[in-house]
Amino acid sequence: RFSAPLRTSAHGVTRRTGSGGLLGAAQSLPYEEWLRAYTAGAAFAGGQEDERGSLSPGKRADLVVLEGALDPLAPPRVAETWIGGGESTPARSPDDAGITNAAFGDATPA
Question: What is the Cα gyration radius of the chain?
Fold first, then answer.
């Protein structure tokens, strides 16, 4: 599901397909690098690095607080979602269909 980026991150990290096959193993990334590419990298690719993708003064302050280990096979859960510097939603699991890519737009690992 595209709406559960923490859950689908396993594909980018392990390079395993849904059927268990290996696809482009040389393109595998450590989970922390995958998160950075998904957040700061996506903001840069979209020409929005001046307003999102990382936390610094003057940026939107959209972020998620993760709870648990950074393990793509057992991803952390989203403990909090913040939009524009204010808490927006209660905690949700990584499989919750209500979590969209917008909620993960600025989540940069510490």
Answer: 14
Main-chain dihedrals φ then ψ at residue 3, nearest 5 degrees: -85, 5
Which one has a higher pLDDT value, 28 or 8?
A: 28
Say what the pTM is: 0.65
Distances (CA, A) of 104 to 22, 33, 79, 94: 27, 15, 12, 11
Among 23, 26, 20, 40, smallest CA distance to 110 is for 40
Distance CA 57, CA 96 (A): 31
- Helix H or strand E encompassing 34: helix 31-36
